[in-house]
């Protein structure tokens, strides 16, 4: 049974946290090139595998993915198996009641596909749905209420990926998750603590309390078993019937009944009409590498490329890794990008998003010219760009690469930790609160402090804007770096820093993952830094005018670097229980 798997230290990422404040190598300004991956000078080493690699936030799920690869499955087969497994083993973010984005690279065809399985608003949703009679936003309605639940996309997204690009049957892929749900998993300290931290939200719903707490209502303790028979049944229906076992029939009826009982407006028609969208990935270049990421309604890929275009104007390698000068120009770039995000981004099926303008090198050059090296520009003075024409820390990401060169970068979520907290009665399925990712009211921040405009207003069947940023960096036309992260509004900047750590500073993927991070999102006008960042660097940033706020950690990247020698995986040490596993 997967719940009893024991991992050797060689299979697990190093659980360390440290700050790298000087660069060991200095690549050329125009085109970076990496030296040997392993080095005696390195402060952290990645996990190496010759054939395949799976890196996720939960060790059992990573092992399931590797088992699929060993059985002859490809990266898509493994990714879908990991997705269903995480719904059992990492219930605060892994899901079948939420949605997300998957980036798939198929080596034999040399093509990359963006699969958008983001949740949609119920058909009866409208722009004033979360406002009271005075026109004020009511937070609880978009976060802890039936109205908070968007139409889930995960099951159909996973099914489409498997049918189009996988090689194994859905029954084979879902079987490990069914076994885990039926037989139980051991409560870890991480899982126990997360349930304590969200008890107020979860315990509002008897159907949820019955699963995630003891019969007397007390908290689970480390070593207890979490057994989910109703979820096992729901997964079995999906295994037998495909997505129809979720979007139609008994599961759909139970989801709608629970949502409506909680005050929501979702209908059976909303579930039956849900569609996954395959989109063309967004592409950019950075110092000789091609960066491929998700297009809108994910804002991540677009703004990663926008910021990289700006930062390409500066000699980042000469500034040095995590120096005040490097972090200063990064923070300024972040402010301009997030200002643009608030104004222009939304569901491209409903609004015109000026993608080509925002990722134009000339547009980036104009932004770079506004950045002063010796002082910060207050956010109040930064406005969204003059364009011609017209989210939770508890998301989870995983990356998979197989022996044929196929790669998957997948980020999915329930939004908040454990989503709305509502389990659809009789299904074991936790439901999202993704409706909070819409602009509840233009100018009013969401649960992550992000400001949105009319482009991201609520409308029936519309997809909310997201920060999820599954990304694949190409070198010479082949995957070189597969990465992504949870982190709500911080995801975009976390992914940006992984890319820069590898390309500009030539860190191996373990060092790049462990290095201290910063985050700025335009409003509020604060620069968040991890406490591991050098105190002298923080003082220098403050001297430039940055309002610095220190926090414990930012994000949890799951990354793979691919070279001619093999695959190098790193699971971020910031969150317990994650694992890079290869063979």
Helical percentage: 25-40%
Q: Enumerate the strands of the largest sheet in spatial order, edge to edge or round the barrel.
A: 1-20-19-15-14-9-8
List the uncertain runs: 3-37
Mean pLDDT value: 92
Beta-strand percent range: 15-25%
First-last Cα distance: 20 Å
What general outline do the C-alpha atoms trace? globular
- Rg, alpha carbons: 22 Å
Please tally the β strands and state the result: 21
SS summary, helix count:
20
Structural class: alpha+beta
Protein name: Glutathione hydrolase proenzyme
Keywords: Acyltransferase, Glutathione biosynthesis, Hydrolase, Signal, Transferase, Zymogen
EC number: 2.3.2.2, 3.4.19.13
Pathway: Sulfur metabolism; glutathione metabolism
Structural overview:
This protein is of the alpha+beta class and 583 residues long. It has a domain at 52-278 and 395-435. The strands form 5 sheets. A 7-stranded antiparallel sheet has the order 1-20-19-15-14-9-8. It has a 7-stranded antiparallel sheet with strand order 7-4-3-11-10-2-21. Strands 16-17-18 form a 3-stranded mixed sheet, covered by helices on one side. Helix 2 packs antiparallel against helix 4, helix 2 (75-89) packs parallel to helix 5 (170-183) and helix 13 (300-311) packs across helix 17. The longest helix has 21 residues, at 324-344. The active site is at 395 (nucleophile). It comes from Shewanella holmiensis. This enzyme consists of two polypeptide chains, which are synthesized in precursor form from a single polypeptide.
Care to give the gist of this entry?
The chain is an alpha+beta fold. The protein has 20 helices and 21 strands.
